[in-house]
Structure formats: structure tokens, C-alpha cells
Amino acid sequence: MGSKGRPPVKASGLPRRPRRLPPPGPNDRRRRMTQPQLRPVPHPAPAAPPRDAGQVVLVVRDLVVTTLIGIYDYEHVKPQRLRLNLELALAPDDPAPWTHAALVETASRIVTEGHTNLLECLAERLAAALLSPNRVLTALIRLEKLDAFEECEAVGVEIVRAA
Fold first, then answer.
1. Rounded CA gap, 68 and 74, in Å?
2. Is 75 exposed, middle or buried (0-12, 13-18, 19+ CB in 10 A)?
3. Residue 25: CA atoms inside 13 Å, Cβ hemisphere, count?
4. CA distances from residue 82 to 7, 25, 87, 97 in whole angstroms, order as listed
5. Mind listing the pLDDT tens digit for each residue in 45-70?
6. DSSP 145-160
7. In this model, does residue 35 exceed pLDDT 80?
8. For residue 94, what pLDDT is reported?
9. CATH of the domain at 71
10. Tally of domains within the chain
């Protein structure tokens, strides 16, 4: 900077261009500050409900239901396929509060009643309904949109909730 905080001026009266620095080398500090090193981050396996000896787990795998879900305009009118996977851990030595038929019927009814914006909200609604019998200890709920992207089989959310 020149005097009084103004940029230096050439004899022609035009301001000087700032000096260009050479490109950063492999060990240059400027390179380390401006170009972060990207490393893959290992993701842990999804958390499953804790299991106790003698615990009974009701399982529903790959239940496919068609419903209106999503925040985009076209998702408000075009139904999408959802795949549901449910695991309910029950208190040992108690009569089961759910039959498989009731579990499938209840999950299907909750998923198909009206439009839902987010998978996360739908998963929470399912968890609240499935945990309501006192004998359910934990619920694992996985919801996946099957038709969201052509590049992958499914995208979704998984939650684990305890009573």
C-alpha cells in the first residue's frame, strides 16, 4: 500500500496490479491452507436396537407401499414406491402386542394416509404408533424411496427409537 492506505500508483497515474505469486508447490503452506485434503470418512454400520437374551424381535422386511411423499411439486401428485423394514424388540416373556398381520396393516395405513413431506417425519410417525403398546422396547424403522434416482437402488432414512 502506498501512503495513506492508497494502492501504489505507476508513473502513468494508473494503479499497479498486485504482484502475482507463483503457484503453490506441494509443500507450500498456502496450498495446505486453500486446498483441503479430502479423505474418505468411514461410516459405521447402522445402529441396531440392543438385543437381550430371550428377547423377541418382530421383523417385517421389504414391505413395498405406494404413497405420496416429498417436497417437490410433482411429488404431491405422483405416487412413489417406498420400501419399509421394521424391527420391534419386545419385552421377554410377555404376550406379543403386535401380530405380523397387524404390524403390516398398521404400517401400510400410516404410510398411505395423506401426503408427507419428509421420510424423517414419516419414520417418526411410524415409531410413535408402533411404540405405543407398552411391551415394545425398541423400534428400528428403515424407509427407502425406490424411484428417487436412476443411479441407485434406493435412498432413505433409518431411525431407532426406544419406549
1. 10
2. middle
3. 2
4. 62, 50, 16, 25
5. 555 555 666 678 999 999 999 999 99
6. ESSS-TTSS-EEEEEE
7. no
8. 74
9. 3.30.1130.10
10. 1
